[in-house]
Amino acid sequence: MKSITIKGSERESVGKVATKALRNAGAVPCVLYGGDQPVHFSAEEKAFKSLVYTPNAHTVAIELEGKSFNAILQDIQVHPVSDKILHIDFFQLFDDKEITMEVPVKLSGVSPGVLLGGDLRLNTRRLKVKALPANLPDYIEANISSLEMGNKLYVTKLVSDKYKLLHPDNTVVCQVRISRAAMKAAQEAAKAAKAPAAKKKK
Question: What helix, strand, coil percent values describe the chain, rounded to 5?
Fold first, then answer.
């Protein structure tokens, strides 16, 4: 999985006054969990844009004055009106410990059902996976080449030896629904097929 580097500074004071001062200065207060002790730090808000405002999944390399930690974004708080980032929690990664996170689904291939006029619906845009950090995928590929009209692609078709998918087997990732246009065309074709037969009976 691709990594984004965040450069910040450790925080000595974590009170409300210090936190407000950080935000007023354009910085975001953060906490890194998962290690022996939580690590409190801050970084400029603009440093998080490529991490937060994207549909892609990334790990994070947090650099704090000579110290470096690999992590994933665990939780984020934003202002309900301005959407300004108020606080971010990270969780530290270790090479020998599995981690759980959500990654996006990426469709590939061409569906025969769609070519016939069906509507492709992506039911699950992100899937929760559990894996060692080195095996975390950038995305999960869902090949729709076998989807006929009315077919569904279940999560069981996306299994991998490198990670576990934490979803029930009946989870639908995407499906090809019969569109109104396709249904109308089928009905008209059926009527047209019946017409010659009716004439022959007469």
Answer: 25, 40, 35
Q: Say yes or no: do domains 3-93 and 100-185 share a fold.
A: no
What DSSP letter does each residue of 7-55 carry, written as one string?
EEEE-S--SHHHHHHHHHTTEEEEEEESSSS-EEEEEEGGGGHHHHSSS
d(CA 76, CA 156): 31
Q: What is the CATH number of domain 100-185?
A: 2.170.120.20
Average predicted confidence (pLDDT) for the chain: 88
Closest CA to 172 of 198, 150, 139, 193: 150
Average pLDDT over residues 48-62: 89
Under the banding of pLDDT at 50, 70 and 90, the label for residue 18 is confident
71 burial (CB, 10 Å; 0-12 / 13-18 / 19+) is: buried
Cα Rg, the chain, nearest whole Å: 25
The structural domains of the chain, with segments of one domain joined by +, span 3-93, 100-185
Q: What is the pLDDT of residue 20?
A: 85
pLDDT score recorded for residue 186: 61
103 alpha carbon, distance to own chain's centre: 4
User: 3-class SS at 59?
Assistant: strand
CATH 2.40.240.10, applies to 3-93: yes
Contact 41, 10 (CB under 8 A): yes
Q: How far apart are CA 56 and CA 50, in angstroms?
A: 9
Give the number of residues written for the chain.
Answer: 202
